[in-house]
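Re: weekly structure request thread

Next one in the queue (289 aa):
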Amino acid sequence: MRANLYALAAICLWASLAALGVLLQHVPPFLLTGISLGLGSVLAWPFVLKDRRQWRVAPTMMLLGVATFFGYHFLLFMGLRLAPAVEVNLINYLWPLLMVVLAPWYVPGLRLRAAHFMAAALGFAGAALAIWGAGASADGGANRTPSIPGLGYLLALASAILWANYSLQTKRAEVSGNGFPTAAIGLFGLLAGLLSLVCHWLLEPPVQLTGHDWLLLLAMGLGPLGASFFLWDKALKLGDVRQIGILSYLTPLASTVLLMQVTGRALSWSVALAAALIIGAALLGTRKD
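Done, posted below.
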């Protein structure tokens, strides 16, 4: 139960990402990611100042963490530039399904029951309905003309694989006794943020940020690109990755509802049906073996 509560807290923070992204849509994505990840890393600093061993991580896990934090956002942002956003978002949210289905191959002793497969399928159906419904209500299904949609979809799939692999590798390392302190998430975020800022310097035009922008960036850094990663790490280390993966389908639903509130759009029947599917999936998938 504690692990599921940590996961739900991370999901609540991730739900605010799209709404904050809309308010900061004038900020280039790599600059946005770099500043936010850097600010998020500050949450780990008190623990590191108290005990520097908190950032002592095996090279393989360091590479995994930094590559995931940077690569996930890089692949997703590039996918959004090359292909329609609704489809890219949908493909990206294959990662909870991958977490559930691949869990036995990563974590010794786990097995999948029919209920897990059914819950994963229901959750993905609900996520798809929430994302498609939001896209249709936003622009009637119209999207800008993508430059290379096939490549964009592949990048979105790669981002999903990357995050599912990171989550399952974290759990496997913890089970095998080779895990890392949760405070090390701050180091992953700091280094990935620096890489993002280098990408901004190389690829994006410079911008002037206002005081209001910095307040929103602070909220994003301390929330969906900060505390959420620490909460997610605690959930993975304490809980059942099959259940956590199914609960993760609440992210696109909550994000869609919050985004509709921020943009002043009315909730639709598709969102209500998506909620029923995802909540049903969560109840089914979090039943004890």
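The chain has one domain: 2-285. Residues 2-285 form one domain.
Next request, please.
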